[in-house]
Specification:
Length: 391
């Protein structure tokens, strides 16, 4: 069999991630590889840490990229902070809260689950009640931006409640970082993780994390070894730690870190506040078009994430048929529903470099055209005008 180089089609990525990657970032990725202990690379590592501190809005010294995707950022937080026997309250309002429960159990902890409806934000009153009835809990975990539904929770309030009961906090910011405010120091978050492929608009495969000194105290004073050698921060700190004489821990994904460095520079140049505002206004334009068609949002307006728009699929319309036609006829990817929402919703992402006017117009026009062609029960002829009006 003859194998040929892989040349991917040029797609517009408007799903739940990965998002479109700017050519500047792709170009950075292709620069010559150097050694992971080369002094020039060490300088780049220091800059990546500083840029991540800006992005997370923190002075935490332990702010670094884990060499693996968002799920590894999640595991790094749980594996280091949860000791066997620890009781952890997990707020679950979608797929990723469910994965946190798995992580707690695999680390030997016991999970107290605080469930909320899929599509709703986490209810602080329910967390308050769980904290009161579980005074022996020592950690509270929550997803800031639930990618499976498009709901955003009030992390500042939830973290404050956890601290009133002497619990550390773990926050998932995979979909929120760079797209909506994430303020690690102001909100007093103890451990947080994200991913590169969403609103940072970088290539997938790296997980920025940040740990407060209080969280690191727990990691340093564990009674048992962290069960994952690769993720044990006590060891990783020898390579990424503050002022450390850098020593080999693993071979860093050199080129992927060039790309992350470039993505973070672009975000810093735009300014975090401007990026948040761009995501917000583009969401309003997309919303205007989708609602003019008659599509309904899963999440109520107050709890809605601007970068992840979950809308209900009109009755009688086949989910996969529409997504396949978008891909084949328009080179446009949107996301399917996950878990309990599979087959019932589409998830339209406006993350990072994907959050652009031309993408929104393409998406609204293509959806209207395909749904109209299929005879779906939607309003036709209004959506593009409604979108344009918002611009
Ligand atoms: C909220 C959330 N957490 C965790 C993850 C896992 O990230 P990754 O797919 O990069 O491992 C995702 C990915 O979509 C996510 O949306």
């Amino acid at each position: 069999m003859q194998f040929n180089s892989f040349n991917p089609p040029i797609r517009t990525l408007m799903g739940p991630g990965p998002s479109d990657v700017h050519p500047r970032i792709l170009e950075a990725l292709s620069r010559p590889t150097i050694g992971h202990l080369d002094p020039e690379f060490i300088n780049l590592m220091d800059e990546v840490k500083e840029l991540l501190q800006y992005t997370f809005q923190t002075r935490n010294a332990m702010t670094m990229p884990v060499s693996a995707p968002g799920s590894a950022g999640m595991e790094t937080c749980f594996a280091n902070l949860v000791e066997p026997g620890d009781k952890v309250i997990v707020c679950r309002n979608g797929v990723f809260g469910g994965r946190m429960v798995e992580n707690v159990e695999r680390c030997g902890g016991s999970a107290v689950i605080v469930d909320d409806e899929w599509g709703s934000a986490i209810d602080p009153a329910k967390l308050q009640e769980a904290l009161a009835t579980n005074p022996d809990a020592c950690i509270v975990a929550m997803v800031h931006a639930e990618t499976s539904t498009g709901a955003q929770s009030d992390v500042a309030t939830l973290v404050e409640l956890a601290h009133q009961h002497d619990c550390l906090t773990i926050v998932d910011a995979v979909t929120s970082l760079g797209g909506t405010p994430v303020k690690v120091d102001e909100w007093n978050i103890d451990a947080i993780y994200s991913g590169t492929q969403k609103c940072l608009s970088c290539t997938p495969g790296i997980a920025p994390v940040s740990f407060s000194d209080k969280a690191l105290d727990k990691v340093r004073n564990r009674k048992t070894k962290v069960q994952s050698w690769f993720m044990d921060l006590n060891l990783v700190m020898g390579y990424w730690g503050e002022g450390a004489k850098r020593a080999y821990h693993h071979t860093a994904p050199i080129n992927a870190l060039y790309a992350l460095h470039e993505a973070l520079i672009m975000l810093k140049n735009e300014g975090l506040e401007n990026a948040w505002e761009r995501h917000r206004t583009n969401h309003l334009a997309l919303r205007a078009g989708l609602e003019a068609m008659g599509l309904e949002f899963v999440v109520n307006q107050n709890d809605r994430l601007p970068q992840l728009n979950a809308v209900t699929i009109p009755a009688g319309v086949d989910d996969a048929d529409v997504r396949n036609r978008l891909l084949n006829e328009y080179n446009l990817e949107i996301g399917a529903g996950l878990g309990a929402l599979a087959g019932k919703v589409w998830r339209i992402g406006l993350m990072g470099h994907s959050s652009r006017r031309e993408n929104i117009l393409l998406c609204v026009g293509a959806l209207e055209s395909i749904l109209g062609d299929m005879g779906a029960n939607i309003n036709t002829g209004l959506a593009l005008a409604a979108t344009q009006k918002m611009f």
